[in-house]
Amino acid sequence: MILDCAVIGGGPAGLNAALVLGRSRRKTILFDDNKPRNSVTSESHGFITRDGVNPQELKRVAQEELSRYPDVSIEKQRVHRINKENRLFQVETESGEVFSAKKIILATGFTEVLPDIPRVKEFYGKSLFSCPFCDGWEIRDRPLAVIADDQKAFHMAKVVSNWTNDLIIFTNGNKVLSLEEHELLKSKGISINEKKIAALIGEEGMLEKIQFEDETTVLREGGFIAAEWKQAATFHSSLEYTLNEQGGIETDSWQRTNMEGVFACGDTRIAGPSQLIIAAGEGSMAAIAVNAALIEEKFKQ
Ligand SMILES: Cc1cc2nc3c(=O)[nH]c(=O)nc-3n(C[C@H](O)[C@H](O)[C@H](O)COP(=O)(O)OP(=O)(O)OC[C@H]3O[C@@H](n4cnc5c(N)ncnc54)[C@H](O)[C@@H]3O)c2cc1C
């Protein structure tokens, strides 16, 4: 069987793409190995009607909804190779199965590389987060940290100051703020600590203190940390699409990449805010764009 579309990645972007494709009677397989970056957290916020939902519960409900549509199925395995041969894409999974598809939607997300600070992974997703729009409300008005050792420090400090008046920015031994930025932050009551961090201290993921190499400590109850973002998926592939400066897949507003038949949506675009509702919206758009392309091909004279 030739699929109308192979959707790679089953987070909110891929799930919503598959839903719209299923409702459009398009033969679709959604491939997912269930390793989303938000697996470290138990609550997701900011999605109307879903505020506070457990991300795995959101996924379970979405998969249940997809099961109503006979043209959609889910393969719970990783895709490791995608090639275009003539006009069709060949999608190969880790188990060696190969599926042919007319169109591809990449919804594989990104993964973050956290700074090399001892115990940081214990706190990430529980009291240290990356996005204040996702998790700022839950830790509002507490003594918070922004941990950022690069150019993001100034921007993050300004944004996070919206949620607390007790904010310290930790640059982990680096001088990343200009004199003007120092002065401006101080004038708004934001403190700056440029010591090298030795460890994060706390129990069960809840931050209590930050300890420095000189053995001093500062009390903090949570905060935000700057991470590097990189593609979650690397394929052995003959696909050639353009990446943006951050390493995200570039698309137009219809989620089309510059390679014909290849669409991308959600975090994998590394462009703008990373949010469930935005990923889901882009997934819907990608599916509509796939439909538009298939309709054009059908009625081509
Ligand atoms: C700690 C934390 C808290 C967050 N909190 C919130 C919040 O409160 N509200 C909010 O809106 N957003 C939140 N986010 C962001 C949100 O999780 C992402 O924006 C959203 O998950 C992006 O959806 P996506 O579908 O693009 O990617 P993902 O959800 O990352 O899904 C990608 C899927 O593709 C799969 N995949 C990757 N490569 C392959 C492959 N080769 N083959 C098969 N499958 C593959 C992955 O395993 C994964 O299941 C948070 C993120 C983090 C890290």
From TrEMBL:
InterPro entries documented for this protein: FAD/NAD-bd_sf, FAD/NAD-binding_dom, Ferredoxin-NADP_redctase_2
Sorted UniProt keywords: Flavoprotein, Oxidoreductase
Cofactors (names): FAD
Domain FAD/NAD(P)-binding, chain residue ranges per copy: 4-283
Subunit annotation: Homodimer.
Protein name: NAD(P)/FAD-dependent oxidoreductase
Species per Swiss-Prot/TrEMBL record: Aquibacillus rhizosphaerae
